[in-house]
Amino acid sequence: MAGTDVTIGGASMLNPWRTETFARGECGVVDDPTKNPAVRAKKQPAIELGGNTQFSGMKQNYRASMDTRARVGLDVNMDTAARQTHVDEYGRIGDSFVNYNIHAKIGYGLKVNEKISLGANVASAYERLAETKTSLAFTADIGGLYNVTPRLNLGASIRNLGNSAEDGTVGGSYEMPALKGLKVFGEVDASPFRAAISGEMPVSSFKVAAGVNYSPANGGIFQFSGGIECRLNGSAYLNYAIQTHDLGLSHRAALTWRFGENGIEGEKSTKGVI
User: Fold this and answer.
1) Coil, strand or helix: which one is 23?
2) Does residue 271 form part of some domain?
3) Is it the case that residue 59 has pLDDT exceeding 50?
């Protein structure tokens, strides 16, 4: 799952998760609009500019991304892979080149009431291989959020609707009342199966996160991740995340501008609330 792409109709649908989601083992169904479009109903006006690099013996991958999180939002990612070694049908070893891959999502979130939010994304992926091969694919996502209490949130989404790579995710987050600011996340993906658990905690002007996920599709290995967020001023944040991968380490960094109270419009304190 992590560091890989999902192929639909010949084009790869990139994993555009936010850098902080990446640090939490990709747990983001309750707060990342690229995983759950219902999150857009929370009115989180923000712009994220980020990059991703993955180094291994087989592939070098570079990514630039832009994410505008709002009730109506746009996410754009562009990947460039430098070289990938492969073996052809005759057993010969060679190199293939992927020039670029552009993935875009536009979505809308609707707040039904104080507890329930719904949303939808429309996505497209354009891929150019070598100098002659191109591929274009379209898909859609739907999702919902349920705020059980101010501390406990549940989310569910179905991504890549209508395609063979259709995937469903359920999960939630809970802010621990006994531990200062610790928030625990958990998620399960249906196809391919993936289970993940993670946590994040504020420390002074920083926020640290760590997570682990498991999927038989990744060879049955556990992937570990971690990251840190630094608040530069009232609206700007710098994020860095790292995750283990069977082909090496994946790194992500991003600069984010958030708008509204505490970076999230209408965000309220949960102090003293169960």
Assistant:
1) helix
2) no
3) no
Strands (E), the chain: 6-8, 11-13, 46-55, 59-69, 72-87, 93-111, 116-129, 133-147, 152-159, 167-175, 183-189, 194-203, 206-214, 222-231, 236-245, 248-258
Structural domain tally of the chain? 1
Residue 268 class from Cβ within 10 Å (0-12 exposed, 13-18 middle, 19+ buried)?
Answer: exposed
Token pair recorded at residue 264:
């999230």
Q: Is residue 115 part of a domain?
A: yes
Contact 239, 23 (CB under 8 A): yes
pLDDT at 262: 43
Q: Which residues pair with 2 in a beta bridge?
A: none
Report the alpha-carbon distance of residue 130 to residue 139 in Å, rounded: 24
Q: Residue 27: which of 37, 17, 42 has the closest Cα? A: 17
Domain assignment present for residue 272? The answer is: no
Which residue has better confidence, 9 or 206? Answer: 206
Name the residue range of residue 108's domain.
6-260
> Does the residue 201 lie in any domain?
yes
pLDDT of 177 = 83
pLDDT in tens, 106-164: 889 999 999 999 999 998 888 776 666 788 888 899 999 999 999 999 999 998 887 77
CATH number of the domain at 200, please: 2.40.160.60
Pick from 215, 234, 244: which is nearest to 6 by CA? 215
Instruction: Characterize 209-233 residue by residue with b for buried, 16 or more Cβ atoms within 10 angstroms of its Cβ, and e for exposed.
Output: bbbbbbbeebeeeebebbbbbebee
Of residues 169, 175, 214, 167, the one with CA closest to residue 194: 214
Q: Does pTM surpass 0.85?
A: no
